[in-house]
Amino acid sequence: MTSKKLVNSVAGCADDALAGLVTCNPNLQLLQGHRVALRSDLDSLKGQVALLSGGGSGHEPAHAGFIGKGMLTGVIAGAVFTSPAVGSILAAIRAVAQAGTVGTLLIVKNYTGDRLNFGLAREQARAEGIPVEMVVIGDDSAFTVLKKAGRRGLCGTVLIHKVAGALAEAGAGLEEITDRVSEVAKAMGTLGVSLSSCSVPGSKPTFELSADEVELGLGIHGEAGVHRIKMATADEIVALMLDHMTSSSNVSHVPVRSGSSVVLMVNNLGGLSFLELGIIADAAVRSLEGRGVKIARALVGTFMSALDMPGISLTLLLVDEPLLKLIDAETTALAWPNVAKVSVTGRKRCRAAPAKPLEAPDSTAAGGAASKQMVLVLERVCATLLGLEERLNALDRAAGDGDCGTTHSCAARAIQGWLKEGPPPASPAQLLSKLALLLLEKMGGSSGALYGLFLTAAAQPLKAKTDLPAWSAAMDAGLEAMQKYGKAAPGDRTMLDSLWAAGQELQAWKSPGANLQILSKAVKSAEAAAEATRNMEAGAGRASYISSARLDQPDPGAVAAAAILRAILEVLQSQEA
Prior knowledge:
Mean pLDDT: 92
CATH topology of the largest domain: Rossmann fold
Radius of gyration: 33 Å
Strand content: 5-15%
Strand order of the largest sheet: 1-2-4-3-5-6
Number of domains: 2
Number of helices: 17
CATH class of the largest domain: Alpha Beta
Structural class: alpha/beta
């Protein structure tokens, strides 16, 4: 099946993509009649060496994203995964020469088509009297035995752009730049891994992988890799990649050893989520530092993609201080990241947590009668929520992601674990505040935040008094906080409906002669409100996004809230008996 792409046409997608970049970047210009992008301040480069690179489209942001002061002068783009035309390459060389540059260096990835087309354009330009040199970059570390074609050019080419650009900006000559980057390229290696292939616009995926397979050592044109391995954790895959890249038995290895200083590039091949990219970056840093390797700089992002391939490549470049200065040199290229000019290794990565404010002493001794009663209440609440896990999940699947029961069970287990650590504070205000912090940390989701808000606000009126009017005021404060930040209102089919119904009954606690019987009425009202949510239109929460205006099951959050109130009531009634 042909993949879906957001393009105007398959034939014109490379032109449209380059035009889009230039349209949105005043520092770039297209070369009329060619798929070539150049610096718009080309005439200011008189007396400098020009740097041209390029290749097939589909590797964005490479290469046009790296045009700018301190990097490339221009880029020649081919169709998707196709070498650019000789005529366009020659036109770009002529354009920079006529702008007054003193020579041109072509930076070419090691692929047959690129070598041939850039090489032919170079020879034609030299025949016209234009000084042109060419470096062919092969940084692939996949092949343990050297192929006749040599190592493929991969993401490490971007580092060559950076080094060459810094040298050119500093006024280095064509021969000096050529020699220097040729040496740098020898101290560099790249290895890729992918969860599946990519798909060229108008075509099917280039290869197939089963659900438990990963492709190791693949290129950037959808070609298969050197090994097909079983799916593993990010840590395991990164360790395998680094082992392969640095093994002396691998003819294309990078000679990285303990004590080496490197630049690390973690490159998204196009379709990997940023979440996964961060996990891979962390794994790579930990694995390298565990081997005694100093990471001088770490670049993480998308630098050279393979369309929509869900994979990554790791690049290692051995560096010394002079080379680091070139990596750190200023550039205006859009796709070059804003990298801190300090070593990654050796930096303190964690700040101590802020000190907690001192708590007022608990006026009632922990472990006393009040504390023991609170333990019984919390244990009953936890048992109730654990017993409701499957029912709440089933109710939530109709309107959400099916995890309401799991979330409440997580909270219950967190409370159980907390109770094992020692008796809870007997002060109601301190108890609610502690529970709020615990649920915010352990419960997660919007439920954790809402319960945290409710308990934090409810604790405030209980700091001064703990009589029945104070508990009614606590309920009011909690409900107010939930409505203020959660934006739900009674009738919106949320947990607030149960709590609100109970809160209305608890207003009677503010009158003289009130007793615990009012809590029994409040619980019945909460249960009735929870049941009534089955006939309500969802006005807040995830259920409000469902196309069906009405749902035929009660809201799981409202059911849970009513069940919590029922558990509290049952313990208090048993204590009175």
